[in-house]
Amino acid sequence: MSLRCLPRSALSVLSCRPARVVCHAANVRIVSRPLLSLPILPRPPAVLTSRFHSSQAAALHDVNRASGSAPLRTTIYFKIVDKVGSLDTVLSELRKLNVSLSRIESRPCRTKGFYDFFVDFGARDEAQIDNICEQLREVVLELQVVSSGSTDLVAMQTVPWFPRKKSDMDTFADKVMEYGEELDADHPGFKDPAYRERRAQITEIAKTYRYGSPLPHIEYTPQEIETWGIVYNQLTSLYKTHACREHRYVLPLLEHNCGYHPNNIPQLEDVSRFLKESTGWTLRPVMGLLSSRDFLNALAFRVFHSTQYIRHHSKPLYTPEPDVCHELLGHVPLYADPDFADFSQEIGLASLGASDEDIEKLATIYWFTVEFGLCRQGKEIKAYGAGLLSSFGELEYALSSKPQKVPFDPHKAANTTYPITEYQPLYFVAESFKDMKEQVREYALKYMRRPFVVRYNALTETVELLDTRDKVVRYANGIRGDLGRLVGAIEKLGA
Ligand SMILES: [Fe+2]
């Protein structure tokens, strides 16, 4: 198979991947621009300058420490009418209540004519929080205490915003770095106005999607289905010998349950429902290139952002960006595997509130695993990375004797550079997805300087900060209950 390297200027466009994503067509490898070289988008849309400085935070922290009690770091959400003076009224009320804000952030409300705000402050106790809320309710339309807990206020000043619940992802749904309808001059569809219009149409559908809605149904054209069929037949012919056993196990299930077939492009809604029932993962349409942070943060909630458009029909075995072929054939089957699902979520959890430097390292780990990972199965090495499983050419190359293969080590992977215009010279080989999950968890605890620990509450589908004694005790009690049931089950089995 010949390798076609593109000039870097031609390698941008679009990706749902978090970083330096290489997108693979069947026998040709095309590379998208390294995303981490691009600036991370600020929190959308406007972050107002806080009038509360770190020195004040330190002073408040010291006062509370001197008095023997840490401040309750509190986040409040409120909605106001989008008009001059609305915010002043709220701020004036807060001044009267002697509240010092450590953060104030605005976002456009989904209802036109209103604005959402999030403010952070340190409170003496819960009674003070109640009083503040009671007074503010007089001047705002909606108000809610998002979180409150005894946390190191100074340390939290530098923690980037991150979603706490699935609907928070709506805030960055349309804050993409590049849009799906933007094509580079050398894109096969660049001079095809009908293709460009189609891309724009599908991108617009993704733009309007909000959490909780059914995933958009795309009526694919015969031409698009034909393109899918060519890719499908090419790739599936290699899976038997090259794909990991988990991928080989799930693909027939997807054919049976979700309409995977050379003559049919599956709908995200059907695939997402299947994943939800299998491992709790869901898909979410994406209109363009998300920042590494936003993309990885979504993994913490078992949400995978997926494109819905397909490559240009003139070159079915070539694409300069991820498309439905890459998502549905490369990524989706593995997200139905419980161990891989857990592993991917572990990367996402590690990314919540992480520094930019740590986000880059996590994105590199993602690159060497979710996109280009190999694993040992028995005496053989197989592919599980979506970049490989959607590339006819690199799939064969990766399992040949040409590239170097080393045992997976997250610390080593995070600090390994890689080329973006040619096949990888080095692949990391995992012993198992379970091992990888533990390794990434240990890596996050050992090497990342995040001042808190998070856990995912699968019942509420929210992320919880384990930052107060009460929360930790409640969490421990939950584990104790599960352990009791486990012991009971083992005893009943006579093990
Ligand atoms: Fe990918």
From TrEMBL:
Enzyme class per UniProt: oxidoreductase
GO molecular function: iron ion binding; phenylalanine 4-monooxygenase activity; prephenate dehydratase activity
Ranges for domain ACT: 75-150
EC number(s) per entry: 1.14.16.1
Coiled-coil zones: none
Domain Biopterin-dependent aromatic amino acid hydroxylase family profile: 145-494
GO aspect biological process, one term: L-phenylalanine biosynthetic process
Similarity comment text for this entry: Belongs to the biopterin-dependent aromatic amino acid hydroxylase family.
Name by which UniProt lists this protein: phenylalanine 4-monooxygenase
